[in-house]
Amino acid sequence: MTTLSINAERLLGRLCDLGQIGRDGDGRLVRLAGSDSDKAGRDAVVAWIRSAGLEVTVDRIGNIFGIWRTADNADEAPILLGSHIDTVIDAGIYDGCYGVLSGLEVIETLKAAGYAPARPVAVAAFTNEEGVRYAPDMMGSLVYAGGLPVEEALATVGTDGAILGAELERIGYAGSEEPSLIRPHAYVELHIEQGPVLEREGVPIGAVENLQGISWQRITIKGEANHAGTTPMSMRRDAGHAAARVVTFLRDRARNANTPTVATVGCMSFEPNAINVIPSRATFTVDLRDPDEQRLQTEEAVLAAYLEELAAAEEVTISVERLARFKPVTFDRGIVELVEEASRKRGLASKRMTSGAGHDAQMIARIAPSAMIFVPSLDGISHNPREHTPDADLVAGANILLDVTATLAAR
Amino acid sequence: MTTLSINAERLLGRLCDLGQIGRDGDGRLVRLAGSDSDKAGRDAVVAWIRSAGLEVTVDRIGNIFGIWRTADNADEAPILLGSHIDTVIDAGIYDGCYGVLSGLEVIETLKAAGYAPARPVAVAAFTNEEGVRYAPDMMGSLVYAGGLPVEEALATVGTDGAILGAELERIGYAGSEEPSLIRPHAYVELHIEQGPVLEREGVPIGAVENLQGISWQRITIKGEANHAGTTPMSMRRDAGHAAARVVTFLRDRARNANTPTVATVGCMSFEPNAINVIPSRATFTVDLRDPDEQRLQTEEAVLAAYLEELAAAEEVTISVERLARFKPVTFDRGIVELVEEASRKRGLASKRMTSGAGHDAQMIARIAPSAMIFVPSLDGISHNPREHTPDADLVAGANILLDVTATLAAR
């Protein structure tokens, strides 16, 4: 038996075409959820789904489904492939789109080859994964998985004041189906890694076995503003210095622990922010991630204890605001093993790994066995026009998705 | 012999009156150099100088002198007392004004008591000490001491676009005398401490023996922006973390050294300043001060070496921009001892100390023996409406200035 493969030219061509839709006046790729450019991107994807002979369904939150059903399998729960096509501001062309277009590509390939699946196979493009215009992110898949009432999601007010439900109506993507209409038998999402691990290790396929839990906090330290020249070191209550202590504490702890914990302080501001005034206030964010919920809780507790100790030692007051918290997600071991097996058969190295970013798959994992496949991101760059994955890796990843889908759909 | 003392009611009343001149619509005290409110403050001071029967002279940079000369001492170099009456935005009422009004008070007291000085005694109000509208600060005394050509100073463009020379003309304080007209025999400046040392130690009089050297630098660290979730700790080039390392390094070094070195990081900013992005750039300021030039140079060199080491260890690039650099000033030992002696005689505790802030005295020290007298600042607060010194301390300080002046003027 010859190994079936996807049509590389068609997949790469569509990725490139979709990547040209939604350029702003400065040439930046911007397709925010519910916008005119989102509509243009959706229209292109729907046209490709129709041209593949699939049935198109749009649910109330605007999730698009392209379903390949046969008379023999119409009553079975489908294998669902997918991701999203909305983007950040000044995006690359791969994030999300690669998963949606590869899902469609896999279905077209199987269909054209005369493959007779035991289950329907469907591709999904979920609404508002990026969360740039409407919070929370991963909204479409969250609603789909029953984690957020559709009415509440539709009532969300965007950063520009526009209501999501009205925007979906306006662009013609407020569907009539309940978001829960299709309960998948399994879900597989192919995605660029958005991190440097696969490229640096020279491994083309990531078999994503879990997704990190995320803890976001905003920390405010209050000290006392004073003259930088006249206040002895021993009499200072320096909020900026205390904030710096937290940054180095988190870094040293995460760096020296032999665990996958990552800790990041991305935002920082001092007040009054004057060269000759000791900072009275420092505000910063802490982003903690770990694939293990118990360890994530431990890291949160260790930080809280450190802050208490620091407040006493530096005579500052510290307040903490929780901004977001997601538990880690463990993907389906069976699907992960299928990814590894498919890679072996195609002579491709694979690596079990953790997703550091959030993805639609983490929502779908609530209702169906799910997993992800990663391909390398050059220099780990994403959410940036420099986002890039070599064509050979894109094609390899889609072929692994093809093999995994064929196996899953045969059962 | 009864000890002569200043007229407390007159001094405190004038301080209060001057403090009401130049309130803005929000009630904030703002008398920026060359402004209408500066004119109003100057007019009040000149009126008080005239009412004391002194000769008023204004030089080309707008410095105001009130001179008490007698037929017997007219050829001698004068004892000069003084400070400034311009303010920061939202200022307290003591900074600068206390020194000018006390200088006038001392002269009036000596004159009224029939004291016959061997030298003229003069009070000066120097232009633009604060440097808020026009840079550099301490401009009037710098020009007076020959450190900046008067033409260059007059051509300075303010933050609001107005030229200092034109503004002085406009408010009637562009004098005709060359700034160097009066070469003082000695200079004494009475000032609030603007720091917490005297208050915390319960000492009413500071005998200021030197003034810290100041080194201001802006440091920019460039790393690499990357996803906070997908970039392992070992693969990060985190500019924010590197900046935090510098903050804690400076603090630990200054805190643990048994020296008067102070180090402050007052300004800090991260880019892109997003919660889930590793900072690609951190920009911050370093304010280093030390009364000893050799030690200040050592601290600068130690920081430079640390930055080099840090750049290599963290794979970041670091650039340093020098913003300001003043050498330390050593005041005249003889005058400092007179301050101590006068305090002893009045039964007041005194403490030799270093000025952490810059003052006009540091400029005058270039051309004449100079020193300063400090009185306590509650909580060390200054440049703030909460700036406060108890009346008893204000009166005590002015009496010490009286005694020191009488001794200096007798020689």
TrEMBL record, chains A, B:
Residues 212-312 form the Peptidase M20 dimerisation domain. It comes from the Bacteria. Keywords: Hydrolase. GO terms for molecular function: hydrolase activity. Pfam families: M20_dimer, Peptidase_M20. NCBIfam families: hydantase, PRK09290.1-5. Belongs to the peptidase M20 family. This is Zn-dependent hydrolase. It comes from Microvirga arabica.
